Amino acid sequence: MEGENSWTSHSNETSVNNTFKFDSFSELHEDTNQEAAPISLDLILPDDLLERILSHLPIASIFRAGCVCKRWHEIVTTKRFLTNTSKVQSRKPWYFMFTSSDEPIGYSYDPVFRKWYPIELPFIENSNWSIASSGGLVCFTGRDIGSELYICNPITKQVKWINGPAGPKFSDYSALAVSVDRGSHRYQISIVKSMEVSGSFFEWDVSIHLYDSVEMTWTAALTEGLTGWRGGGESVICGGVLYFLVYSTGGGGGPGHRLVMYDLKSGSVNGGSLMGGFVGVPCALTCGRLMNLKEKLVMVGGIGKNDRTDIIKGIGIWVLDGGREWREITRMPHRFFQGFGEFDDVFASSGTDELVYIQSYGGPALLVFDFGLKQWKWSQKCPVAKRFPLQLFTGFCFEPRLEIAP
Amino acid sequence: MAAETGTPTTLTLKSNDDELFSVAESAAILSVTIRNMVEDGCAGGVIPLDNVDGKTLASVITYMNGISAIPADEEKKKSYRDKFLSDKDFETLADMVLAANYLNMSCLMDAVSAKIAQVMEKKSVGWVRRKFGIENDYTPEEEAAVKEEHKWTFEGVETDDDN
């Protein structure tokens, strides 16, 4: 990580040549015995030192520091500062919770400070849009993929509209994923579309579309027919592989879900064909979600009861080892499972880096699993109340980063 | 530790208010500024440190002695630094970060910077201006606009007399 922008190199340079003189701040402070120092600390504090101090601030405080004066604003908005502050601190992923199903409003949860912030999302119309996030960017699309596709940094509020892939604007199902390269900030967006073949519920056309932020173009990577299976809304890019879930439509396909892997580097699907490379899921699952936790593929899902698979008896987290075997990491302890209160068997989960967030559609309670610490913890209570019985709550996880722009 | 041959070298440091301090060379060379002087052979007599007052220098020397007595264990060093800084007020921290910068002590500078940031993080814009002696050069309109940009960041800020 010792780039030319790192603190060590640039501060050494400046300190060695540091020949300016200053009087002790506290000495002056004591002499005059006043609240405010007569010679301002601001005048004797060199830019690089001030930068170093401010880089240790949490995100909300950095934005506030920019309101102190113009010099500070300039410092906290330089590219060097934004890059350095992200290196100095490890910031845990936040969770955005929609507080209305009709409007793009909600709160973002910071698990380090255990605080909810009212953050607005640009352009997104409602919580039913498909949302994917990676490395500080959040990508979202409405039903009309052709004209309603955006990528934004929810912290800095920078947003970019992306012209969707060629072909039909609407599909029966579409799964959105995004992957940001942390070094170059180049990103890739993938959309897996599933279209029913005229009137047959068993025959589906599945196509993969890839967007590259440098080329600024879409490529149609693959189109293949599936029988008895269809794609859905669940996909993630992880370690250079696009993973997505397919769902049984009956008609001989077998029950449940399967996982498909498409290698983005070689441009080939695992097993040569979509169906040839199916990987099973750990057990009968509901609400199965895929996520990238430090470039490992993780699945979260509800474990169905033996006799009634649509009723869940618990929630599990698995990691895919060697591209084939699921290994159980943990199951949600019963007291947390019960803690959701009104748990109506449908829940949302979203994760990145080292955190998995789980929330019941029925209420704003939010549970966090820390992969590093192997620890379950409730979030601080979200400052939103359930207003009507059928109100649904969803959300998504994203990394709070200042240095990345779409 | 390796067995010492003879008595360890001691350096004499002089603050800008003419206080003298004796410190083991092995601890003092945590400061790159002092180490360069020693290597250049200018450390024979008294080393004048024109930018550090006695009170701050005493504190820095306490730190130098404390941290150099800890064997290479980053965890232990970190907890020493945390404890060392835990009772320091803002003014002392400000003096220390300037001294650490002048003495070129990277680890102390980082620890104090982080501590100052921690003291600042929940404070209002007004508190920060007062403590740093900053004159607000925004017009009221400009300030309102820059605050409006990320107004969620003003939630839960500690209130004080005049923000």
Please, could you describe this protein's structure?
The complex is a heterodimer of chains A (406) and B (163). The relative contact order of chain A is 0.12. A 4-stranded antiparallel beta sheet of chain A has the order 3-2-1-24, with no helix packed on it. Chain A folds into 2 domains: 7-87, Up-down Bundle (Monooxygenase); 90-398, Kelch-type beta propeller (Neuraminidase, 6 Propeller). By secondary structure, chain A is α+β, with helices and mostly antiparallel strands. The two termini of chain A are 23 Å apart. The longest helix of chain A has 10 residues, at 7-16. Chain A has helices at residues 7-16, 25-32, 41-44, 47-54, 59-65, 70-77, 79-88, 334-339; strands spanning 94-98, 106-110, 115-117, 130-134, 137-141, 149-153, 158-161, 173-180, 187-196, 203-212, 217-227, 229-238, 241-248, 257-263, 268-269, 285-293, 296-304, 312-321, 325-331, 347-352, 355-360, 366-370, 375-378, 395-398. Chain B is elongated, with a radius of gyration of 20 Å. The N and C termini of chain B lie far apart (53 Å). Chain B has 163 residues and is mainly alpha-helical. Chain B has helices spanning 25-28, 32-39, 54-68, 74-86, 90-103, 106-120, 125-132, 140-149, and strands at residues 10-14, 20-24, 46-48. Chain B has a 3-stranded mixed beta sheet with strand order 2-1-3. Chain B folds into 2 domains: 10-120, 2-Layer Sandwich (Potassium Channel Kv1.1, Chain A), CATH 3.30.710.10; 125-154, no CATH class. The chains are: A alpha+beta (406), B mainly alpha (163). The interface between A and B is large, with 52 and 54 residues.
